[in-house]
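Researcher: Structure for this, please.
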Amino acid sequence: TIGRVAAGAVAKRLLSCFGVEILAWVSTVKDIECTTVDPETVTMEQIESNIARCPDPEYADKFIEEIEAIKKKGDSCGGVVTMVARGVPRGIGSPVFEKLEAELAKAMLSLPATKGFEIGSGFEGIKLTGIEHNDEFYFENGRGVRTRTNRSGGVQGGISNGENIILKVAFKPTSTIIQKQNTVTRDGEEKELRARGRHDPCVVPRAVPMVESMAALVLADQLLQHVAQCRTLPFDEDTFPESVRGAYRDFDADPALLRKKEVAESSG
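Model: Predicted structure, token format:
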């Protein structure tokens, strides 16, 4: 966990240079679902205002109450973490082998206790027809081409489209509980097992920074690949650390790239 979060912090710092912000929160605990949080406006302060890591105080209390009740029974419960990445540039990802949603899914499902991944409309999208599900394009002055809805979750054809990337990750109930359970020993003998020690009745609040970190690592990786291949993103030297500025200068000074540029200009 510490390795993921530490690396994710570095990735977040890099992404912030491009105006990317990643936030995650607990949206479901057991069968209690919070649908009142707006991904456009939610803040870190709201998320971290309670131990449930839910921006809605009313639902945070419900989550805490449910987790406490489960804990008293010596049992556990699961839930869902929702995440939004705001300000992601268009064009990040790949249409075939490294599709952005596939890379995000792989990263999220590598986390312990994960059992499900959704992006955009997710499984609810199957209830709609094509005309209902399609995100219509329109032109907005100052921002260019946008979509009126975001059922695609900010990714179309494996590539970011400039809208918010919104995904959900499902976490199962903790396996280790203090209630008696039937098991089998190495010798094949059936026995009862009762776990001891300190174990979380619900890991979902603790998973929030892990989801943010994995998303940051994927987006930073895809962003760096995009910059290396295309260098089509806006670049303001004043907002970047010296190490990043140096990388750009090295990129500009690469003899092979300069030669390609000269050839292109001469042929043009």
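Researcher: Any notable elements?
Model: The chain has eight helices and eleven strands. Confidence is low (pLDDT under 50) at residues 250-255.
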